[in-house]
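Recap quiz, item 2
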Amino acid sequence: DTAVSQTPKYLVTQMGNDKSIKCEQNLGHDTMYWYKQDSKKFLKIMFSYNNKELIINETVPNRFSPKSPDKAHLNLHINSLELGDSAVYFCASSPLQGVNEKLFFGSGTQLSVL
Amino acid sequence: AQSVTQLDSHVSVSEGTPVLLRCNYSSSYSPSLFWYVQHPNKGLQLLLKYTSAATLVKGINGFEAEFKKSETSFHLTKPSAHMSDAAEYFCVVSDPLTGRRALTFGSGTRLQVQP
């Protein structure tokens, strides 16, 4: 019944590894997002997809590659993980693309890079 | 450019007393403003949003916020705090006129509720 679900909830890995975080929404929404929350709780958008099309890419290193196989899924793949990638990553969705839309968030993936 | 400043990183209140979480924004025109709440180990949940209708906005769980253009503020209030209100609160601004298609989040205010 979870509206926006992301896995895994926790991810601990070594520097240099490649990892993926998966996100799925069952709300029928057209737009999905990835946000990064740093250790000071500051949230910043990374990517936005509308109906599988990339809309926003906020100067994120190209080690981060989002993939949207269909509009219900937006996965995040990270290559060559660095210490600074440690953060909580939130997937979100909204019915439409506009900035006034209510966002529905997943419960987050806490990534720790050692 | 749009920005949002949450004036307090931590607020502590006693159960049953009023809550005030302060937020000031900077925007080129008339923005849309939101408050989101994040409970521990959970995703964010929308409390309320202002989109140029009534300046006093009522949200869920008894929260409300007032848009004051002259003060560029959008403070969040609740008459009586409940233990379950303990969480992190984020003030958020969007400003389509700047051409940005994303929301800008404040740095958050942690609300503690003492018994």
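The mean pLDDT of chain B is 89.
The first strand of chain B starts at residue 3 and ends at 6.
End of item.
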